[in-house]
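Example 3.2
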Amino acid sequence: MEPSSNAVNHLAPTLPLTTAQAALVKQILAFTTAHLKEEGPAVFVVEGEAGTGKSVVLTHLFNDLQVAARTAKESPLYQTKNQFTVNHPEVLKVYRELAGGQAHLLKKDFQRPTSLINQLDKSGDHRDVVVVDEAHLLLSKADHYNNFYHDNQMTELLKHASVVILVVDFAQVLRMKSLWTRERLARLLAPYPSQWVKLTHQFRMQAPQPLVDWLNAFTAGTITPLPSVDLADYDFRIFDDAEEMRQLIVRRNQQGGMARVLSTSGYPSILDGGKHYITEGRFKLPWDQYNFTATPWAELPETINEVGSIYTCQGFDLNYAGIIIGPVFYQDPASGRLEVDLSRYTDTEAFKRRADLTDPAEIDRLKRQMVRNALNVIVKRGVKGTYLYAHDPLLRRTLTQLYHTSQLEKENDDH
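Structure, written as tokens:
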């Protein structure tokens, strides 16, 4: 069976790797082999922003591991017990679907961290290699609601494995219960042999680098004129009408699929099973519903009539993303910067208290950073195009003016 879904096609181990990606897979396999028989865990960390090809590297790596473990009698990896884990139900669906189309990958090879930890606790079993995708989503405090009763998922995985391979992006930390910083992780890994590699090349977005830089600066708070770059190969637009943006997303979806409207927090959102609507002028659509199917949210045809949240789009490629910058963001009239209004944040799950955080100033700073992180993740979903609409009137006016100015400059250049 060939992998079928759009997300699977972007991750399949049959996809060619770049020279740098292939070298990284080789480097991680060499590290794994070198530390397999040593006492205590060794850790390889791959760090990279959204869209830098981290998951593709992991898929190839894990496929190579399992081919060696299951078929290569001459390999030091033969008959090793290896596991792949990701703490994101939608991304896990993609990996399990991927496993169905590969000879040496089994669906049971892929698990949520809590399931794996609880299983290994119960059996007293050990894994030779544990591969962790989206390691910034690992719980760093107990979460009884999700049946995790220890203090830290990373610590627990280290207890049960000889080698742990992590893929992490500290700019994708979105919740207090999964609070990670480079310093926190480095401190936790200090007792163990470890190697860190950073990926920087942007693969997901076919956008010119100056536009990616502009988006990074924007989500960090700085609003500047749009870069004067040729956007012939990337469709970037700013709208002053959310419904107009939605209609274009629908047309894009009819043309090639995988086009969706996404939004930041700031609109009614309660986990009660009911529908909660995002309304912006003529625009009115409900938030994404919990998806009980084996198909990722973005690939369900009916979700063209929903608005995706950070929790359904994180880790996914869309062809086109129409993004609503919600009430939690506003432009400060005095400084002109993009600021965060925490009082408008409606994702109550994100900011649960932690016993190890007591300084109100630090808590406030972390909350604001997480809100900005969520925006940065959302604006990097669109492979072929990104559309923006802002709730805040001043921000909307500023952005549309910047966009119209850049369009006029382009027209003048063309003439």
